[in-house]
Amino acid sequence: MSLAGDARVLLSMLRGQPRHGSHAQRLAAFYGPQAGQYDAFRERLLHGRAEMVETLVAALTEQRGGLDGAHVVELGGGTGRNLRFFGERLDRLGRVDLVDLCGPLLAEARRRFADQVNVHVTEADACTWRPETPVDAVYFSYALTMIPDWRAALDNALAMLKPGGVLGVVDFYVSAPRPEAGLARHGAFARLFWPRWFAHDGVRPSPEHLQALRERLPLHQLHEATAPVPYLPLLRVPYYRFVGRLPG
Predict the structure, then answer these.
(1) Could you give phi then psi for residue 77, rounded to 5 degrees?
(2) Would the pLDDT of 10 be above 50?
(3) How many domains does the chain have?
(4) Nearest-CA neighbor of 31 among 106, 87, 84, 91?
(5) Does residue 12 belong to any structural domain of this protein?
(6) Residue 95 contacts by C-beta under 8 Å, 6 or more apart in sequence?
(7) For 96-142, how does the pLDDT look when each residue is reduced to its tens digit (9 = 90+)?
């Protein structure tokens, strides 16, 4: 990515999301100017996506006995970059619904998958959009923290899954001050700094997301880690990968 492209993205991030208008309007105003550079910059910021997709594919294959014909939904899919992590396996899926509320990012997705007949791009709210029939897998990639009513989005995702269906999430977070045994514990600086740093751009890392996922899907795989942030060489941001399965 060019320095000019980086500068365009960083300028948008410094300005932050507008404080007025609907959620869709705020997203369009924030991401519209940087839509063309969105993926290149975030390759260095949004870690763990490929690994989450691999774990989700493995769980889906185990549950169904194979990927052929599976119906997968990405909520908050943006430009569709994450679908590339499926590689050639994307062609084996029966249907993929990519849903997002941000028109400028979806325009990139429509161009990217114009010739991919099994990929359907829809501008809609992740809290309310539903497919016509239950699906095999749903995932959020750095989207749950950007949805104001994230509990409604999570409930909606679980409601559209078939029995035994798979839910994947990869996202930023911060730990609780005293997390359960076996979970990562972040220091006071991280717990204070990252929510405030991200809030300017409408991103809300929280310990509540992971807690809700673990409670709703006790059968799951979880990986917690930290990763570098572009232009902040001394800091590492916490993120997690979660893949869980409904009973059935």
Answers:
(1) -80, -15
(2) no
(3) 1
(4) 106
(5) no
(6) 71, 72, 118, 120
(7) 999 999 998 999 999 999 999 999 999 999 999 999 999 999 999 99
Count Cβ atoms within 10 A of the Cβ of residue 239 and give its class: 0-12 exposed, 13-18 middle, 19 or more buried.
Answer: buried
CATH number at residue 220: 3.40.50.150
Please answer whether residues 143 and 82 qualify as being in contact, where contact means their C-beta atoms are separated by less than 8 angstroms.
no
pTM higher than 0.90? no
Compute the distance between CA of residue 48 and CA of residue 27 in angstroms, rounded to an integer. Answer: 23
Name the residue range of residue 134's domain: 39-245
3-state secondary structure of 214: helix
Cβ atoms within 10 Å of 127's Cβ, excluding its own: 19
Residue 8 lies in a domain: no
Q: Lowest-pLDDT range, 1-5, 55-59, 188-192, 234-238?
A: 1-5
Q: What is the pLDDT of residues 54-83, one digit of tens each?
A: 999 999 999 999 999 999 999 999 999 999
**Max CA distance (Å), the chain:** 51
User: What is the Cα–Cα distance from 210 to 204, expressed in whole angstroms?
Assistant: 13
In order, the DSSP letters of 89-153 are GGGG-SEEEEEES-HHHHHHHHHHTTT-TTEEEEE--TTT---SS-EEEEEEES-GGG-TTHHHH
